Amino acid sequence: MLPRMPDPVEIVPYDAAWPGWFRPGGAGLRDILGDTAVRIDHVGSTAVPGLDAKPVLDIQISVAALEPSDRYAVPLERLGYVFHADNPERTKRYFREPPGSARTHLHVRRAGSFSQQLPLLFRDFLRADPDTAKQYGELKRSLATTFRDDRAGYTDAKSDFIWTVIRKADDWAQDVGWEAGPSDA
């Protein structure tokens, strides 16, 4: 096995082009998955205007059931996406971009599940609360310096802040009657 290449944590300023990264990919996924995908959404930091982020496109694909996986895995692999069976998160299936392509992470989750709703709520709350989004961006920049060569440490160090935001987002959702809007693709 080849040694793993370094993959430093790098946070860059928000790029207004990021939503445009999603459009063709989301449309292509919709074309190949059809009704298998209940929803296809741009999630993660690149989906929040003004938020500094790793330049990685996160796409959430919501399906009726994770098993059997052939209905979504076979078409995704046909597009060149690489399934990562070693992903420890049991409530999703994780795919990465085709080799040589722009960084793209596909998160396949069961529609209506907590794990599917959480990224949508988190994204929508940060879109609605620019001050919290700014705080999150500042934290990510600081942690990227501290944990430049330790992705797991970087992710773990964000945990307390993220759960605090999720509690605020839940209160906000109750106040505004939040529901996930229409699918992005």
Give structural notes.
- With 185 residues, this protein is of the alpha+beta class.
- It has one domain: Beta Polymerase, domain 2.
- Helix content is 45%, strand content 15%.
- The protein is built from five helices and five strands; from the N terminus they run H-E-E-H-E-E-E-H-H-H.
- Strands 1-2-5-4-3 form a five-stranded mixed sheet, sandwiched between helices.
- Strand 4 and strand 5 (104-110) form a beta hairpin.
- Helix 3 crosses helix 5 (151-176) and helix 4 (130-146) packs antiparallel against helix 5 (151-176).
- It starts with 17 loop residues before the first helix and ends in a 9-residue tail after the last helix.
